[in-house]
Amino acid sequence: MTTEYVFCVAEHVFKIGFADSRQDNIHLLPSFIPFIKEGENGGYVFYVKVSEALCLNLPPLTDVHNYPTPKGSLTVETNKKDAYRITSYDDSGNCCAIMQTMNGFKNVECVLQGTKEMRAFGLNNSIMMVFTFRTSAAETLLIHASAVIHQGYGYAFIARSGTGKSTHTRLWTEHIADTELLNDDNPVVRIIDNQVFIYGSPWSGKTPCYRNIKAKLGAITQIVRDERNYAEAVSPVRMFCFLQTACSTLRMDNKIYHNTNNTIARLIELIRNHSYALHCRPDKEAAVVCHKTICRNDH
Fold first, then answer.
1. Residue 175: in which H helix or E strand, if any?
2. Close Cβ partners of 22 (under 8 Å, ≥ 6 residues apart)
3. What pTM was estimated for this model as a whole?
4. What is the crossing angle of helices 254-270 and 236-246, to 10°?
5. Measuring CA to CA, which residue among 221, 212, 200 is closest to residue 294?
6. Which of 30, 78, 184, 215 is 20 to 30 A distant from 56 in Cα terms?
7. Which of 133, 253, 154 is closest to 196 using CA atoms?
8. Helix pair angle (284-294, 165-175), 10° resolution
9. What does the alpha-carbon distance between residue 261 and residue 27 come to, in Å, rounded to a whole number?
């Protein structure tokens, strides 16, 4: 018997199934609870089945890559077509999850290992990857960013880890009226009918901010540490380079990587007058300067 749950993230509907198990169930996914979709019987973007053993008989996987991640590492094995086995490891090198697919991540089987914390990490990591890969064809990006909502618009701040994205959005919520945190690590940006929206997601890093809401995207701003506070518009080429490093993708899969780059290019075209770099200190003035420069008033 399999217990199944339907979720909706950034208006993409997907299903997670848990085979009978004492350890693997919805309690591994507390951040997904706000995204449960009741009474949904339509089509799904993807389906992940969590079971105790891998049953899919994959062809020989001869192409193997190892990738570091912010919280561990991945091993990706493929036949250079549509078959993949991806193993997730935590930052101590422990195997937490193994997932397999043969149809472009539409149907995925996943096996979890280790403690409850390891299994939760592995499952979250696996679902996040499948979501990213499957939605890449629908002009959707999972962006490593911290994002706020201010007066009906969403503002995303991107930067290298440790630069101060979370600090800056905290300064907005503390000092800029009518501002609230949307997501602190992985908001979703999606283009629908030539409009750009930013969404909360179940993935928010160390800050528990799992909000099933959306807003029109007001601007994207790169945070740059500096000794003084000033904001400047950036060129499309520069913003493309920023976003390429900030957006999750699968570079070894030509189709997924191509989809991601096309969506980044389309996004930049649609927000070409709302792409910025903020040179700043971690202080109140930085938030005030940024607010004055990037905020939209074209409601």
1. helix 165-175
2. none
3. 0.95
4. 140
5. 221
6. 30
7. 154
8. 80
9. 35
DSSP-derived pairing of the beta strands 195-199 and 230-233: unpaired
Amino acid at 21: S
Q: How do residues 91-115 score in pLDDT, each as one tens digit?
A: 999 999 999 999 889 999 999 999 9
Tokens describing residue 215: 């807003």
What's the full length of the chain, in residues?
299
For residue 9 the two structure tokens come to 């993230």
CA dist., res. 56 & res. 25, Å (int)? 21
Closest Cα partner for 293 from 200, 191, 198, 172?
172
Q: Which residues lie below 8 Å from residue 162, measured CB to CB, with a gap of 6+?
A: none
CA dist 75 and 85 (Å) reads: 8
List, for residues 130-182, the tens digit of each pLDDT value: 999 999 999 999 999 999 999 999 999 999 887 889 999 999 999 999 999 99
Predicted pLDDT at 40:
67
